[in-house]
Every structure is written in structure tokens, then in C-alpha cells.
Design brief:
This protein is 32% helix and 9% strand. By secondary structure, it is of the alpha+beta class. The chain has a five-stranded mixed beta sheet, covered by helices on one side. Strands 7-6-16-15-14 form a five-stranded antiparallel beta sheet, sandwiched between helices.
């Protein structure tokens, strides 16, 4: 019998193979001095007779896997990873199989399902309806290989060798769309064709999934040639042209089979962004279009579709001038185009989705004011053109826009004579210099920034500057710059207000340096001029207006001045709906772009321009008004930008060759030697403003001008060489330091003592080509009164012989209105307050 204390099995007989289990004690510490390994031996002995032996017997010799402990427990095992991967593969395969079986190729879109967009005036009456589909399908055999290859080089160079879809590009596009990084395309030509022909233009994950499966099915059932033909016949090229045949007619006036490589590459360029790359509609985008065109041609060379020698000989083709759809004739097409540009630029609706139609768009345009704008242009300019007798009259164009300063709403716009005849919107194009209409922004910036002259004097309306012709600017380290004044006139010392009246270049170029041309640029942008405006550069010349902001851009900026420096974001759209659901519009925002003092002080000197400067024709509006004239270099455009408290309006008359599209001077147009901002543009402005505000109460400007704006600054007698009693600052806009009533032999105050038949368009009382100070005919009684009293206007020796038959009543020394002896430019008798007009000539006057 065993002497063990362990309990025994019944009967005292131990089962075969059973061994008694000894309690396992924790290993004892190894006694000091014990031989190395003693502890291990004891432990090993215990294991051999205890738990290890029993476990081994239970598992029949299999070793137990140790449990995962510590940080290892947070990571999946390789078995879990492998299982998850296999499951993911099975799910993907299953999902693909299910999608492939479920998604069927739908019926093709038909013209019968196409919808129109309806455009409404602010009062709800219909402005226009578009949506007429212009498409003519042609077989691939009629599309030259050069045109086919150009499209492939632009959109999918591996079309014939790749599969129907590009999963990597699709995943990237889907991820960016879902995560809000912008809607992007990751489509092959096959996928684009599916989108155009079977689906819609919306960029959503659901549409992408359908596009994916339909493309795979289509690629298995239809040849690559048929897919390419379908793609070229359904793609949108702009100008309401769907398909390459319609595009060939719209841009080059020929069938697609007659296109050459250069023209085919240009049409391929349009596939990426039809409206942006139409260089006839958006000439300011030509550099971008040429860059994309070069990309297409270089791709053709890389793929072996075009030789390098042929590539070198290829010249950029100039598309013909666009013609609008007959349903958009007159002003309607211009307005629709401007509204569409607004919707897409503000990301309210993308271009492709808008082209699908179905939208009902209520604009901010007011029908009565829209009609008034067209009538003003017709009365003052278009009715006076004689294209048979004067070839230059063929080049005359006009553009205009009007904004409510308080709301930022565009209430009227004039884009051209007829959208079907002149496709480019003259109100939104950005390729004509704004000239001297930019000068007020320089003065606004001076007040806003508390600027001082080179000798430390604060810049106010009465600050005296040196108006010497071709005077080099001081304080500019970018090289010599000495702008000329109109007709090379020297003004000597002259106040800022008078320099604004007379549009003196040398003064404003120096002021731009005094303020800092970078600050001037920033102020212009704050007022509403886009930062991307061509030639808006920080240099002294910025003051003279070489930048090419649009008429609408300038209207937005002048509306900010009219609204005491507050800039409401301009808008052309009041409401957009589709299928009864209203589309969200941007939240209207108003920012204090410049201080009230800066804006109002600018308004005060622009009032002087209308009262007795180059903009006197604007007085015919019969309302308190502020404004500025401007003329582009070589008289290629003439501007008047002005406002009343209720309405800001800008008008430009432009010269453009109808055959070549080249900008042309307006010398001799409308029977006048020169076309200046103070003439026809100001006359259009006055008639429109008068009619647009008819029946509304007259409002005066409530101005809060800068401190010291009303304090005259006397010139230093030692610097001028004049007696202060006679050579000081004049009281009515007279030039300090010169004989009262005249500016170096010329008429001062614009008309004092001047012949009432003064030639339209001349500046500073000087008849073009005459000696300074000489008038067309002597006056009998037209001199300025010293106390500013009104003159009787004077009578010319031969009133009927003066150029243009225009009369001019002569301004009083304080800017008061003289009595005219007749109407100017076709205005009725109540417009007789006109005086000298003119702000023209080369170098941005």
C-alpha cells in the first residue's frame, strides 16, 4: 500500500494509466550559493511528475498553444487577416456579379426628352427660353483621322488598347466627390459616351456605379469605333452645338470632313471646357485655350499620330464670330449668357447640368429698365451710324450695365446690337482698357489709407499736385515713368479735384506712387474689380487704366462708391427652381469695402466732374450725379461710369472690326473726329438714368467727407512765381497759378468764354489740331464772371458752322450751369445744360 496522503480510488485499486496529481507549489528561490541550474532541475522534476505529465496524458502528447498576452492581443492574427481578405474578395466578386446582372443598358436619351430652361424678368414675365438641341450625327468614316486622333489625344489616349473603365481614376474621383474635395471626372471615352447617351450629367456615386457597369457591358457588345463615333456625335462643344458636325459649322462654318488638323485640335480643346475655351466669346481666355490646344497637338505627336515637322507648321486657328440661336435674338441672348455665367461661376449649377435643361430662373433684371437701356443706346448711337458713308461706323459697338447700389442686383444690361449678329456680350467681356474711369479708385485708396504726398501733405480734393506734361513720377524705384497728358498739355500746379475734372495723367500717376500702387490695386479689388483682371498690375500706370475690367465689373465697383463704401455681392438671379424644387442660392453678403469717408470724398470730386469737368453731358439725367469719363489707348474704347444715389451705371462704346475681331480706333466714327467718354457714353448714361428713374423722387447725396476735404490749399508763391492774390487756388475749379478763367491760353472751368459750338470730344477747351486756347469762333459775351455768376452763354460768329452744330452755354466759375442755345447729340431742349465734352486721346485719358 502506498503511504501517500492523496485520496485513493474506491476499491483501493488505481485505474490503469492514472497517476496521482501532486500539488504544484511555486518554485522556491534558489538558495544562495546553490549550483547554477539547481532551480531548473527542481522545476523540471516537478513538471515531470505533476501538471505537465497530466496535460500531456490528456492531450495525448499534443502541445498547447500559449495564450496571447499584453500588446499582442490588440492585433488580429494572420488567420483573421487572411480570412477577412478572402471575405472581402468574395464580397467584391459577388457585388460585381450582382451589379453586372442587375444594371441593364437603358434606352438612349432622345431629343424628345430634352427640356428648355426658362428665364424670367424680376416681375415674372418671360425673358427667354432656350434648350433647342443643335445636333447632326455623322458616321465615323466622315470624321477625318486627324480629328479623331485630336479627340483621343485630349481625352483618352489609350482608348483602343484599354478596358472600358479606369478603376483607379474612378475611385479617386468618387473619393473626392464623397469627401467634399470637389466633383471630378475619372472617365474614359467609353464612360463619357455612356454618360452623354444613356445617363445624365450629374456627378454622383450612384450615377458613377451605373456608368461603370453599363460601360463594361457596352464594351463587350459594341466595337471601339462605334463607341468613338457615338462619343463624337453626343459631346457638347459650346455655342449650343452637340456633336462634332454641328461644332464644325458653329466654329468654322464648314463640315467636319473638311476640317484640318489645327481646327480638329481646337474642337478637341473645347471638350474639356466649351465656354471657357471659346476665344471668340471669351478673348481674355485665349492664352489658356492655346495652352490646351498645344497639349492636344503634343499628345498627337507623342502617340505617333502627327509628325513633329507637321506639328511645327500648325498654327492656332481663329474660330469665326459666334451667332446666337434665333430664339435668343436681340438682347435676350446676352442676358441668358450672362445669367448662365453667373450660375456656373458661383457653382449654383454646373455647366453640363444646366445644358440638360428643366430650370426656371427668375433674374433680377427689370423689364422697363432693360427696355430703357436699349432705347438709350439706339437713340444716342445706333440710329446715328451710317455704315455706307463711313466705313468706321461698322466697327462701333456698345455695352452697358446698371446695378442697384444698395442690393447689388443687376437691373439692366446692354450686350450689343443683337445676339444673333454680335455674339460677344460687350457688358461682360474683359478685353478693353478702362482708361481714366480707374482714376477714382486711386483717390479712394489715398483717403482710405491716409496717404500723403512725397513732401508729407495729406491727399485731399484740394491738395495741389504738379500737372506738368510728361513729368517723371517721384518715389518710384521701378524705373523711369513719365506719362503724357492729353494733347501734351502742361497744367502746372493743380488741385486733385481739378485734375480729376480734367483727367490729368501726370497727377494721378504720381498719386498712385504716393499711395502705393499695391494699395491701389487692393482697393480696386475691394470695391469689386476681380483680382484676375488682365493687366491689373501694381505700378504707377495702374492709375491710367490699362487694365481690362468688364463693364459689369466697373459697375459693381462704382456701385460700392455710391453705397458709401459698402459692397454687396452683385447678383443676377433671384430664384432658381427645377421640377418645383427651389435651388439654394448663395447667401447675400455686404461688406464695408472702404470707409464711408473714402467713398463719399471720392463721390464729392466725381460730382465736380459732372458739374464742370469732362462729364457735363451726364447733367441731362436731371438728377444729382457723380461720374468719370475714360478713353482707352488710341481711342479704341470710350467710357462713362457714374451713379446717382439710386443707381450705378457704366457705359462703354468700343471699336471692333466685325470681320477680324481686332480692336480698332474710333477716330471718325459717328461723324466725329474722336469719340470720348464725355460724349456718346455720357449721353447714353444720361438718357438711361433719366428714363430708368422717371417718376421716382429726386434724391441728393448724403456725404460724409474726410477731414480737411473742404479746406483749400494755397500754393507756395516761391514755387509758382505767382502773386497769391491772383495765382492761388481758384474757387470754381480754376487752375491755381494761372490766369483766372483760362488754363495756359485754354478755356478754364471747361467752358468759360468758350465758343458754344465747341467741337465734341475735345478736352481742356482745346480744339483738336488747333493752337492752345483757340476756339472755333470768337465769342461776343461768354466770359466767366469773377463771382461765379451765370453767363449768358455767348453767341458765336457763325453758330451753324461749328463742328457738330453743338452749342455750349459756358460754365460759371463756381461750376454753375450756363444757358445752352440748343441740344447736344440729339437730346431734347431740356438737356441744354451741356458744356464741353471730351476726355479722349491716346494714353488712357
Amino acid at each position: 500500500m502506498s503511504s501517500s496522503d492523496e485520496p485513493q480510488q474506491p476499491g483501493g485499486k488505481e485505474p490503469e494509466g492514472w497517476a496521482p496529481r501532486e500539488p504544484v507549489d511555486p518554485p522556491a528561490a534558489t538558495p544562495a550559493g546553490a549550483p547554477e541550474g539547481a532551480h531548473e532541475d527542481a522545476t523540471g522534476a516537478t513538471g515531470a511528475t505533476g501538471a505537465t505529465g497530466a496535460t500531456g496524458a490528456d492531450e495525448k502528447g499534443k502541445k498547447k498553444r500559449p495564450k496571447r498576452k499584453g500588446w499582442r492581443r490588440i492585433f488580429p492574427t494572420w488567420r483573421m487577416v487572411l480570412g477577412g481578405f478572402i471575405l472581402l474578395i468574395l464580397l467584391c466578386v459577388g457585388g460585381f456579379a450582382a451589379g453586372y446582372m442587375i444594371v441593364e443598358i437603358p434606352p438612349a436619351n432622345t431629343a424628345a426628352t430634352a427640356q428648355s430652361n426658362v428665364y424670367l424678368y424680376a416681375d415674372g414675365s418671360q425673358l427667354a427660353r432656350d434648350g433647342e438641341v443643335n445636333r447632326e450625327n455623322v458616321p465615323l468614316s466622315q470624321i477625318p483621322k486627324e480629328v479623331q486622333h485630336a479627340a483621343l489625344a485630349a481625352e483618352d489616349r489609350d482608348f483602343y488598347s484599354e478596358s472600358a473603365v479606369d478603376p483607379k481614376a474612378m475611385i479617386r474621383a468618387a473619393y473626392n466627390t464623397v469627401t467634399g474635395k470637389g466633383k471630378q471626372s475619372g472617365s474614359t471615352i467609353t464612360q463619357q459616351f455612356v454618360k452623354n447617351y444613356y445617363l445624365g450629367q450629374e456627378q454622383t456615386v450612384t450615377r458613377k456605379a451605373k456608368e461603370f457597369f453599363i460601360s463594361i457591358k457596352l464594351d463587350r457588345e459594341v466595337s471601339k469605333d462605334d463607341i468613338l463615333a457615338g462619343y463624337l456625335n453626343t459631346s457638347y462643344f459650346g455655342r449650343n452645338a452637340y456633336g462634332v458636325q454641328s461644332a464644325a459649322q458653329a466654329y468654322f462654318g464648314k463640315n467636319v470632313k473638311d476640317l484640318d488638323t489645327a481646327q480638329g485640335a481646337y474642337l478637341a480643346t473645347l471638350l474639356n471646357s466649351p465656354n471657357a475655351y471659346d476665344v471668340a466669346t471669351h478673348p481674355e481666355n485665349k492664352p489658356r485655350a492655346v495652352g490646351r490646344w498645344n497639349y492636344v497637338l503634343d499628345g498627337m505627336v507623342k502617340e505617333g499620330w502627327l509628325s513633329a515637322a507637321e506639328r511645327a507648321k500648325t498654327k492656332f486657328p481663329e474660330p469665326k464670330e459666334a451667332k446666337g440661336a434665333s430664339s435668343l435674338s436681340g438682347q435676350r441672348g446676352y442676358l441668358v449668357q450672362a445669367v448662365e455665367d453667373y450660375l456656373t461661376a458661383n457653382k449654383i449649377v454646373d455647366e453640363d447640368t444646366l445644358d440638360k435643361g428643366g430650370y426656371r430662373i427668375t433674374t433680377t433684371l427689370q423689364k422697363d429698365r432693360q427696355d430703357a437701356f436699349k432705347k438709350a443706346v439706339d437713340d444716342q448711337v445706333m440710329s446715328k451710324l451710317d455704315k455706307g458713308a463711313r466705313k468706321v461706323d461698322r466697327n462701333v459697338r456698345a455695352g452697358g450695365a446698371s446695378i442697384d447700389p444698395k442690393t447689388g442686383e443687376v437691373v439692366a444690361m446692354y450686350g450689343g446690337i443683337d445676339y444673333t449678329k454680335q455674339y460677344v456680350n460687350n457688358a461682360t467681356r474683359r478685353d478693353y482698357q478702362v482708361g481714366s474711369t480707374f482714376k477714382p479708385f486711386v483717390f479712394t485708396s489715398a483717403v482710405e489709407n491716409g496717404s500723403v504726398t512725397q513732401d508729407g501733405r495729406p491727399i485731399t480734393p484740394n491738395t495741389i499736385y504738379d500737372g506738368t506734361n510728361k513729368r517723371p513720377v517721384q518715389g518710384w524705384d521701378g524705373g523711369a515713368y513719365a506719362p503724357e497728358n492729353e494733347d501734351d498739355v502742361d497744367y502746372g500746379d493743380i488741385t486733385v479735384s481739378t485734375a480729376t475734372d480734367k483727367s490729368v495723367n501726370s497727377v494721378y500717376a504720381q498719386m498712385a506712387v504716393d499711395v502705393g500702387s499695391d494699395k491701389v490695386k487692393d482697393t480696386a479689388i475691394d470695391l469689386g474689380i476681380p483680382s484676375s483682371t488682365p493687366d491689373l498690375t501694381a505700378s504707377p500706370s495702374i492709375a491710367l487704366g490699362p487694365s481690362t475690367a468688364s463693364v459689369l465689373d466697373m459697375t459693381e465697383a462704382y456701385a460700392t462708391l455710391a453705397n458709401h463704401g459698402k459692397h454687396p455681392t452683385y447678383t443676377m438671379v433671384a430664384k432658381v427652381t427645377k421640377d418645383g424644387q427651389e435651388i439654394e442660392l448663395p447667401e447675400p453678403k455686404t461688406a464695408q469695402a472702404v470707409s464711408r469717408e473714402a467713398a463719399d470724398t471720392t463721390t464729392s470730386i466725381l460730382q465736380s466732374v459732372v458739374d464742370g469737368g469732362t462729364g457735363t453731358a451726364a447733367q441731362a439725367a436731371g438728377r444729382p450725379a457723380a461720374g468719370k469719363t475714360g478713353t482707352a489707348e488710341e481711342d479704341k474704347a470710350a467710357w462713362f461710369a457714374g451713379y446717382t444715389p439710386e443707381l450705378a451705371t457704366v457705359v462703354s462704346v468700343m471699336g471692333q472690326n466685325p470681320d477680324t475681331g481686332a480692336h480698332t480706333p474710333l477716330y471718325g466714327a459717328l461723324g466725329q473726329p474722336r469719340i470720348n467718354g464725355g460724349a456718346f457714353p455720357a449721353q447714353i448714361w444720361a438718357q438711361f438714368t433719366r428714363d430708368a428713374l422717371q417718376g421716382e423722387p429726386v434724391q441728393d447725396f448724403e456725404l460724409d467727407v474726410e477731414e480737411g476735404a473742404d479746406v483749400p490749399e494755397l500754393p507756395d508763391p516761391s514755387a509758382t512765381g505767382q502773386d497769391p492774390a491772383t495765382g492761388g487756388a481758384a474757387t470754381g475749379g480754376e487752375t491755381p497759378g494761372l490766369d483766372e478763367g483760362q488754363t495756359q491760353g485754354q478755356d478754364q472751368g471747361q467752358t468759360q468764354g468758350q465758343d458754344p459750338g465747341q467741337t465734341e470730344g475735345q478736352d481742356q477747351g482745346q480744339t483738336q489740331g488747333q493752337d492752345q486756347g483757340q476756339t472755333v469762333g470768337p465769342t461776343t459775351d461768354g466770359g466767366a464772371t469773377a463771382d461765379g455768376g451765370a453767363t449768358d452763354g455767348g453767341t458765336p460768329t457763325d453758330p451753324g458752322a461749328v463742328q457738330g452744330g453743338q452749342t455750349d452755354g459756358g460754365a460759371t466759375a463756381d461750376g454753375g450751369t450756363g444757358v445752352a442755345e440748343g441740344a447736344v447729340g440729339g437730346f431734347p431742349d431740356n438737356a441744354g445744360a451741356y458744356r464741353r465734352q471730351g476726355d479722349g486721346g491716346p494714353s488712357y485719358y
